[in-house]
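Run log, item B.
One chain of 73 residues. Sequence copied directly from the ordering sheet:
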Amino acid sequence: MFGTIGTSELVILAAILWVIPLWQILKKSGRSGAWSLVSLFAPAGLVLLYVIAFSEWPVHRELKKLKATAPSA
């Protein structure tokens, strides 16, 4: 029927709504955004979530570097 959304369209829409922001988060964490496609598979997506959450981000590396080179008071 015209004007109705089927299950397959909803699944595709949900995947797009999930992948796009995750792509940006991965880029900000210093990784390839393409890894967000892995999150579409449940077990791999859970592993990816833990890797993102508990790994060191580029901003943390820079902060450590700045603290190491800062003159002490």
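Observations after the first pass:
- The radius of gyration is 18 Å.
- Residues 7-69 form one domain.
Flagged for discussion on Thursday.
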